[in-house]
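User: Just a sanity check before I run the rest of the batch. Below are the structure tokens for the first item. I only need the designed sequence back.
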């Protein structure tokens, strides 16, 4: 099977969204912008040996490659519309490609994302998706919008993906049921698309937690020129992680909770005037939205207070590919 057969059989599809003028099959896709809307573009790459190990289930990889991009769009408050897929594959393994596309397509259908182009080449396995979302002009949620006095919130739970990785690597252990639940958080993250869209006009800033809370909230602190104080006891986490916080594995649990990557929850700030709207939103979305702290004055940096209210002396650091 050659490159063009692979494209025809597995990547090509008929144009679907009305604003798509030209889809897969030409040198580029053509999109007609909707009046009054802006596009948000983001790209994220999954590299074998770096982001996933050889032999990872291709269905889950297809899901995750798109999910991490939809998470970035969600953090901007954008509604996903289109995606481009660049793949490097060591060989034209059709079964692998078909399974990968099953995972990708299932998530794409769920969020009405249309694949409109890409590139296919031989090389060490590498999956790179560019996602395009839209939102009303001027309504994007930025990292730079947090104000002193705002509450800080986080969706869902934190640290499960990192704990799953620790369990898989033999550095920790949990019972079989927790292991399955944690594994799903690592392999099949659910991008918080509906939340991101609903936070337009509600949140003052937003970011998705892909590299750990301390690092990602740190970006908001820097971009917004504010400080932030977070309460460890308020951080939402799974029962499995909660149990480890009070055990001999506390250091590991703290690292998962504060610096664990791959959660893909949203961390956002909002003024107190939005308290009730955010409570209502959590109910409507059936997704916990937990206040975890407050935005403070510029210069205060990011502090995390332990269960007795004392600032942690040392914060676990975010993952850095070149660190
Ligand atoms: P070109 O050589 O002009 O870049 P290609 O032969 O690489 O074009 O691709 C032909 C068409 O197939 C283009 O529309 C391109 O966007 C699309 N395409 C190629 N690879 C993929 C892929 N992995 N996923 C989706 N579309 C793809
Ligand atoms: Mg061309």
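Assistant: Here's the designed sequence for the first item:
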């Amino acid at each position: 099977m050659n490159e063009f057969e692979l494209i025809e059989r597995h990547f090509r599809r008929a144009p679907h969204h009305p604003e798509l003028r030209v889809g897969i099959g030409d040198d580029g896709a053509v999109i007609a912008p909707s009046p009054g809307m802006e596009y948000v573009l983001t790209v994220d790459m999954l590299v074998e040996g770096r982001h996933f190990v050889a032999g990872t289930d291709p269905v889950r990889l297809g899901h995750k490659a798109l999910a991490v991009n939809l998470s970035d769009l969600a953090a901007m408050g954008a509604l996903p519309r289109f995606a481009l897929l660049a793949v490097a594959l060591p060989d034209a393994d059709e079964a692998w490609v078909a399974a990968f596309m099953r995972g990708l397509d299932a998530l794409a259908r769920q969020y009405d994302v249309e694949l409109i182009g890409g590139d296919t080449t031989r090389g060490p396995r590498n999956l790179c998706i560019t996602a395009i979302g839209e939102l009303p002009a001027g309504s994007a949620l930025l990292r730079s919008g947090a104000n002193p006095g705002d509450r800080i919130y986080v969706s869902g739970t934190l640290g499960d993906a990192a704990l799953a990785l620790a369990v898989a690597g033999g550095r920790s252990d949990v019972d079989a049921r927790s292991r399955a639940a944690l594994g799903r958080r690592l392999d099949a993250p659910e991008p918080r698309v509906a939340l991101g869209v609903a936070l337009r006009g509600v949140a003052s800033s937003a970011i998705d937690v892909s590299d750990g809370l301390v690092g990602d909230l740190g970006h908001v602190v820097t971009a917004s020129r504010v400080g932030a104080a977070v309460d460890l006891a308020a951080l939402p986490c799974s029962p499995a992680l909660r149990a480890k916080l009070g055990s001999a594995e506390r250091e590991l649990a703290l690292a998962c909770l504060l610096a664990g990557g791959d959660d893909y929850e949203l961390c956002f700030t909002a003024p107190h005037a939005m308290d009730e709207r955010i409570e209502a939103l959590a109910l409507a979305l059936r997704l916990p939205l937990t206040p975890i702290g407050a935005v403070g004055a510029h210069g205060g940096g990011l502090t995390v207070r332990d269960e007795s209210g004392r600032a942690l002396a040392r914060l676990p650091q975010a993952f850095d590919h070149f660190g």
